[in-house]
Amino acid sequence: MPTAGTYTRVNYRVWLQAMRVPFYSVGLAPFFMGVALAWNHGYEISWAVILSAAGGVFFIMLATYLLGEYFDFETDRINREFNRFSGGGRAFLHRKEPPKSLLAVALLAVLVAGGSGLLLHFNFRTGSFTIPLGLTGIFCGIFYSTRPLQWAYRGLGEVLIAFCYGWLTVNTGYYLMASHFHPTATLASLPVALSIFNVILINEFPDYRADLETGKRTLVVRCGKDMMGRLYCIVAGAALVTLLGVVNLEEFSPKMVWSFFPLMALGGGKMLLVSMKLYRDRAILEKICGATILFNLLISLFILAAFIIS
Q: Which of 69, 140, 179, 221 is the most buried (most CB within 10 A)?
């Protein structure tokens, strides 16, 4: 008979699965990219501010993922074509309904994120835009899957993810160090935003049937896989073009230019696979999903490193 310790261990693993910890990197890396740019511009770096703000970003993402587990429960339950990168965390699908504790923990995460914003504004005096930036992230995140807005169900989720994981995180990282915005931060955020848009877009391909049956009107459901495959290629090309623009910034370290070519090869390779409609093969689609996430993360780390060592 299982012991109490056994149940604790199983629950711990289930919650880790629901939290989707590996995916926090795509939100935190752009934030640190903005911090690195501010450091590159000569601003003093406060580790207390960095840790407080990174905690806020983490808890906003935590709330977003847990609310997705709750409100996407039925969609995820009937999904039979998901892969390792799509279909949600799938942590509680062994139950008949999602546990209410998901809502409680998500609310706690939102409160902690809000507390982080208040600490930054009132204690560290990081500037008048600190709280609006945080509230924007919270508002977009919690209503990504949560009723009544449910951005992901209305064909808006993809664009809001691009904004939040691109412009918002990079510029927040910069602003909290410099107390003002800078156009370079916006330019540097463009390839990140475009590539994370494609992450969400391609992850909707394996979820198409389940989303269609449950009324989750993503862009892929609205427009079809073939049309969104073409959009994927256009956006991927735009990400490479804007990345080339970042490489030519005076803040960009020439020592990192050699790393640009493997990124070009990765970006071009996945574009080729999608343009050939190889996403119709489930095994190849999973590889494309993984390569798209990797491409997004490597872009952030690539620019982050270049800003640091220049």
A: 69
